């Protein structure tokens, strides 16, 4: 189970809307100036995600919850997203190379196969996303923000 803490935005009718921050380790490394990952992280505008998770327990905005998702579902989805276009690219490029004996045809086949593999992955992911085992679940709930008081 892969776990991550999130903050509750709202809760209505058994559904909690939670806000997850994307964490990167780019501020703790000594080679920050020459790191390619740091540059790629700066390019992406989205640094947080908001998702809806079922919760029978009433939650308050600002409350922390621990979310979990099965490792198998995460690995399978990553395999689907990355390998489908790659396999499509190689197979269709090979077929076009054999049929037309041309590098230009192989290039066109590679592009068609990559796009086709992406579309196949997109179609399968829509079906897989509806499975209950692939959904994040709330593992534990923290105290509401106004419950904890420190007396001096």
TrEMBL record:
Where does the sequence pass through the membrane? 74-98, 104-121
One Pfam family in the UniProt entry: RseC_MucC
Q: Report the leader peptide range.
A: none
Keywords (A to Z) from UniProt: Membrane, Transmembrane, Transmembrane helix
The protein's superkingdom reads: Bacteria
InterPro entries tied to this protein: RseC, SigmaE_reg_RseC_MucC
* Name of the protein: SoxR reducing system protein RseC
Native organism:
Superficieibacter electus
